[in-house]
């Protein structure tokens, strides 16, 4: 399916007077449609790497090419457009809006992007709601559903704009082991059905070991990168 994402010689240094280097010459490529996990201890640099992949932060040096677009010289507005069109995010905390229903929450990124909600968007939201198993609670307020259901709603929301890449930052970090497995299986199903590329940061070895590829970051270096078939 080709390369969706290429990172070449990525370095990240924070601070001017006292420099703190967090990433060292990171080189990674991600195939379209792949399912990847990134593991590492706290402070290893994996969250910084995730923010750089998601264009939320810029590297000090190095190149990132997303879906054929070199992001090196893009300004904040151009990066925001690319991000909205290409990337969906799932965080450890679902960040659903409490005053909105499940359906309204899922439609929020579409509404932000297009300033309105079309019948096609509602149809896609219905499809995603069905896919994540929330049809019975779609008109419930987001505070009236369980933690696992909230995270499934967050996954559906991340998919509403049809991104090619989903970045998950500890997406199962707040869930019990049974719900973690349910949510993980759902992400794998979406990966197979929609061919969406997934990159998950996780502390959970059980989750990481179910991905098609495991990348380990330690002290800002990639120390392991293995296919997991």
UniProtKB/TrEMBL annotation:
Q: Which GO terms describe its cellular component?
A: membrane protein complex; plasma membrane
Domain ABC transporter: start-end pairs: 5-226
Answer whether the UniProt record assigns the keyword Nucleotide-binding to this protein: yes
Q: Which InterPro entries match?
A: AAA+_ATPase, ABC_transporter-like_ATP-bd, ABC_transporter-like_CS, ABC_transpr_LolD-like, MacB-like_ATP-bd, P-loop_NTPase
The processes (GO biological process) annotated in the record are: amino acid transport
Transmembrane ranges, per UniProt, are: none
- Tell me the domain of life: Bacteria
One MF annotation (Gene Ontology) recorded for this entry: ATP hydrolysis activity
Ordered alphabetically, the record's keywords are:
Amino-acid transport, ATP-binding, Nucleotide-binding, Transport
Entry-linked SUPFAM superfamilies: P-loop containing nucleoside triphosphate hydrolases
PANTHER family in alphabetical order: ABC TRANSPORTER ABCH.1 (PTHR24220:SF86), IMPORT ATP-BINDING PROTEIN (PTHR24220)
Name of the molecule in the record: ATP-binding cassette domain-containing protein
